[in-house]
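User: Fold this, then the next.

Assistant: Folding the first:
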Amino acid sequence: MAPAKAMKATKAKKVATKAMKGQKAMSKGGLTGELANATELKKAEITKVLNALAEIGAGEVKKTGKFTLPGLCMIKTRQKKATKAGKKMMFGQEVMVKAQPAKTVVKAFPVAALKSQI
């Protein structure tokens, strides 16, 4: 019984990856069109709203390090430490690595509501 479940799981995975590869991500214009149809607002108004949302989100992430789009994702920042120059083993070979300065990394994480829908 277990091999049959494993076969179904691998088939489902293959179908999902094919679907993801075949589909292109929605553009900003496509998103404004869908929102215009859903809300009965003009595309120009929706473009202004999206631009304002992007500005507010960027400012909030810069100020507090965290911004949440309810029901969609959470954007966070974290500090990466500086690394020293030296030798490291990579894939069985010794490689010289340059020093890297400390930097801020921005990442987005899906919220629980989105995870439960997918």
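Now the next one, as you asked:
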Amino acid sequence: MNIFIAGGTSGIGYALARHYLDKGYYVGICGRNPGKVSANSFKNLKAFQADVCDLDSIGSAVQSFLKHGKNLDIFINCTGSYAEDVAGKISYEEAEEMLQTNILGTVNCFEIARKAMKGQKKGHIAVIASVSGILDYENSSLYTKTKRSVIQIGDAYRRALKPFGISVTTIAPGYVDTLKLRQLNNNDLSKKPFLTDVEKAVAIIVAAIEMQKKFVIFPTKMKWMMRSLSLLPSFLLNMIMFRKAKWMKDDRP
């Protein structure tokens, strides 16, 4: 089986790559800095430098992985960009990075995977969104809005690609204990509810792909909490989520 993981050089993406390599599959990964991973450590691993915001860049990486007539069985997009703009200001560069990576990058990954799989009449595409994208309210953060867009993009491609035998799974995780999350929070995860370790997250994602599920939210407690919040009036949800953001930044409302 041939699997390509965008954003596979760190975090959940790299953990997924390790899982599939342990099963003896051929795995391609890409990132802006593939030097973080020693491809020579794994017989069936190929690492590429690519930027999902550049269609030609991600396309070239996938084509190189699939040379010699390989099929693309699974494509997983684990890329993402985060900056908090509810309790504090973000720069134009941070906002642009989120919009480019989380929205344009998502579309680019779907397009490259679609083109590779369409002639096969089979294949599976998975995209990592965020549980925060479930909530729809006026003053949600830019990050939340981009991840909500990822969920909607995934649903659109799922419907469009179904007639071609290509299935799509959208994953909306809560907080996963990755190095990136620790770096963003100065190694203090005490304010991250229902934290999931990477191994558990990988098991859930792999199972969702194998069962070709349409949409998966985890952990379960986070799923029900977010769905309960989504039932609140917009003004009340705005207030609660703003205070939550302030609390997480140790600011007083």
